[in-house]
Amino acid sequence: MKRFIVKFVCAALVLAFTAACGGGGTASSVPDDGSIGGTLVLYSSMTDNDLDNLVAGFGARYPDVNIEIVNGSAGELTARIAAEADNPQADLMWGGLNIADGDIHSEIFEHWLSDFENDLPASYRSPNGFYSMTHLSTIVLCVNTELEAELGMNITGYADLLDPRLHGRIVIPDPNSSSSAWNNLSNILTVFGQESEEAWEYIEEFLANGVVVTSSSSVAFRGVADGEYVVGLTYEDGASTLLKAGATNIRMVYPEEGASAFAFGAAVVRGANNPNAAKAMVNWLMSPEGQTYMGNALGTLRFTNPNAEYVSPYLPYDHEITWVTRDIPWLTENRPVILDRWNEIFMRHN
User: Fold this and answer.
1) What is the pTM of this model?
2) By residue range, what is the domain housing residue 251?
3) pLDDT (tens digit, 9 = 90+) per residue, 164-195?
4) Are residues 314 and 341 in the same domain?
5) Are 253 and 330 contained in the same domain?
6) Mind listing the pLDDT tens digit for each residue in 54-91?
7) Per the structure, how many domains does the chain have?
8) What percent of the residues of the chain are helix, what percent strand, and what percent coil, each to the nearest 5?
9) Are residues 327 and 228 in the same domain?
10) Tally: H helices and E strands in the chain
11) Nearest to 122 by CA among 19, 24, 23
């Protein structure tokens, strides 16, 4: 887990889910005069690119806040928040909290939603009354184009991942702890039929091809760019951030069999020491102003507020992708069974 301090003084989206919670949550209680406290501790699974721009944009609105950021996987961070419940260290978590989680983290987050909840399309509204869904995370295959050419391959989808030439050269994070891996596993089940044996037959063959399962989500795109792997099952924001940084040896592949996304969000930690600052950041992330700023600054994320206006030069247009629709309630209800079966197959091949 990486830990760093950021201090600043600045001048001034195709999911089938019906929201379980309608309104905008409780009143925000965030002062309008900028007096929200001097410190904010943010736990986040987002990329450095996301976090750097969040600091800059939020800092222009609240120039006197010091932000401490703890970066890690979704599983690491929620476990840490739970372990710290008697003495909370975090004020807010952003990223890794996806719309299919249901209420599994109900005890560690305050049941509060942003002031912009009612602005969202129904499919992006909170699933539980405490996640404010800020952005979408679409699955992609990150492919090293140099290694792909050496193998004489043209990777277009899931069928290619069973090719023996890729044995031991595919990486995916652990879906038990990584939200990006659960995102990818959910897409595989959706593409092949979530309750079908065809889906599990594919997963069996996939894991039998020497797939490397790692504890770090970033390995699925950074390890590909570094030439450790040919393919990583990852998410748009991670891979496209490398393209934004100038990487020329990778490309993003949206499986020809179909791609889909989860909405991901932010939540205020129950008992946070700096709740006003935490709520102010969630409100900013959910506002048209915040999402317009972040969308244009990043160019690597799709956001949820339809009133935001931005351009994403590193992402394809929607019509260029073959989309499939997830059954979010089914995935939420069956997650423990799905992970148990994944783990059994993985152990058999390792």
Assistant:
1) 0.84
2) 139-260+320-349
3) 999 999 999 999 999 999 999 999 999 999 98
4) no
5) yes
6) 999 999 999 999 999 999 989 999 999 999 999 999 99
7) 2
8) 40, 20, 40
9) yes
10) 10, 11
11) 19
